[in-house]
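Hey,
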Amino acid sequence: MPLYHVRASRKLNLTSHSGLALLGRSFEAAQVDNVANTKPRVKFGMRTSDLVKSAVGTIAMGKPDFY
């Protein structure tokens, strides 16, 4: 797992996608896959953790209407 260092800079411009790497790291630290997937996986379909991650990701980017 890569380690991210967050620091302030006047040269870089942040976009709405800038925080997704840190959000993914937070999902791993919180073990969202283990917590959200309490039911057995169906043969075809999405896991609950995938839905949670995509919904939170779109909200973090400022686009909550896309899910």
